[in-house]
Design brief:
The chain is α/β, with parallel strands linked by helices. Helices cover 45% and strands 16% of the residues. It has a five-stranded mixed β-sheet with strand order 2-3-4-1-7. A five-stranded parallel β-sheet has the order 8-14-13-9-10, with helices on both faces.
């Protein structure tokens, strides 16, 4: 059965069309999808640089540029890709000038204006056999009329919620025995995979026939490292999850807000230490301890070693590893750093102030003391940017078990 893939660029172009043209495009796609032999519904341009280019009739003035499958041995021989919508004369010119291929290093669909570069490369290289096999996020495959309607109704935002088939296998895995991690570089679809996983788990939790009472009572948490990303995740989730009861199962909070909420419920509204005042505190503490380091170095040593490893005694700090810190410290220098850190910590406590990382540690201790994890599942996006204190908080916030943590990260960014 033929499949229709829609190129990423098409969605933005569709949004700019007049409504009557949009309706004509919708009808043309529906006709194509309902045709028993959709290839016969397409026109072959009179002049074409790429033998796979076809034109889809939209109305008397407009044509869709479609990339047809390659040879009969092509594993994607039933896949057509709608690339763009143009007036008929421009569509013919487009076909006469351009050739498609897949950049296998980047995993993207490329189109080249052969006429413009023929002086640089007179003979075009043949396209690969599998046109869509290595394309990660440049096309979305349409599985039915409802999915197509959603894509075209939200041409910019909807792109952010549709999965490549390889990503779908990960997002819709029936269950993971425990924590699961998805890794990849920018633009590889990690965030979209997390969104779909959250939607699947929430749908199960909202189903009384599939979830126990305790599971239905516990929400899911979708989290990341800052507030702006959390707002973006919430907006994408609103687009993906249409059932209000399912959507209500998912809380979207960045980790700092989660820690703030837990501490506030336990002892009242915490006061976050001002970063400039914190640097000043470290400058004074380092000077009084006779420590020859910058305030930034002292603060980073506190955050990246002492707080990261949850070191509670000077002896623990004197014997710990400091991997990645760059500058070595003698035992005597470590003792001075510990003294400065104790002074800064005492000053913050006296001022009834906390840093976000201190709040994360306090929140995780509160959850462990309560012995009642708040969430059934936690899903984390951009996990490489989280601090160990924040990871301890997330671990304390969800009970160990199947599908407890689903993590998306780019290990090369941290």
């Amino acid at each position: 059965m033929a499949r229709l893939a829609i190129a990423k660029g098409f969605l933005g172009e569709y949004a700019k069309l007049d409504q009557d043209v949009q309706r004509a495009v919708d009808a043309a796609i529906a006709t194509f999808a309902g045709h028993p032999h959709p290839g016969q519904h397409l026109e072959k341009p009179r002049h074409s640089r790429d033998d796979r280019i076809r034109l889809m009739p939209v109305d008397s003035r407009w044509r869709g540029v479609v990339l047809a499958p390659g040879a009969a041995t092509d594993p994607n021989r039933d896949t057509y890709c709608l690339v763009t919508i143009l007036p008929q004369d421009q569509a013919n010119d487009y076909a006469a000038r351009r050739r498609f291929s897949v950049n296998r290093a980047l995993g993207v669909l490329e189109v080249r204006d052969e006429e413009a570069i023929q002086n640089l490369r007179p003979t075009a290289q043949p396209a690969g056999k599998r046109l869509f096999a290595d394309v990660s996020d440049q096309v979305t495959f349409v599985s039915g009329q409802e999915e197509l309607r959603l894509i075209l109704a939200h041409p910019f935002a909807a792109w952010r919620t549709f999965l490549h088939p390889s990503q779908r296998d990960i997002a819709y895995q029936a269950s993971y025995a425990g924590p699961a991690q998805v890794t990849g570089g920018p633009g590889t679809g990690k965030t979209v995979t997390v969104l779909h996983r959250a939607a699947l788990l929430a749908e199960r939790a909202a189903d009384p026939e599939r979830a126990a009472d305790t599971e239905r009572a516990q929400p899911l948490l979708l989290t990341t490292f800052n507030g702006n990303l959390a707002h973006a995740l919430a907006a994408q989730l609103d687009l993906l999850v249409r059932d209000v009861h399912v959507r209500q199962k998912i809380e979207v909070l960045n980790v700092d807000r989660l820690a703030y909420r837990i501490v506030r419920q336990a002892r009242g509204t915490p006061v976050i230490a001002d970063e400039r005042e914190l640097r000043d505190r470290w400058a004074r503490a380092a000077a009084e301890a006779g420590l020859d380091v910058t305030p930034a170095f002292g603060k980073n040593e506190w955050e990246q070693v002492i707080l990261a490893q949850d070191l509670r005694t000077e002896q623990a700090y004197l014997t710990c590893l400091r991997t990645g810190r760059g500058r070595p410290l003698t035992k005597a220098q470590r003792g001075l750093v510990w003294r400065a850190a104790q002074q800064v910590t005492a000053e913050l406590a006296a001022a009834r102030q906390s840093t976000h990382l201190q709040l994360a540690d306090e929140a995780s201790q509160l959850l462990r003391q309560a012995g009642a994890p708040r969430y059934r599942h936690i899903l984390v996006d951009e996990a490489q940017d989280l601090h160990p204190s924040q990871w301890r908080l997330l671990r304390a916030a969800v009970a160990p078990g199947p599908d407890d943590l689903f993590i998306a990260a780019d290990p090369h960014q941290r």
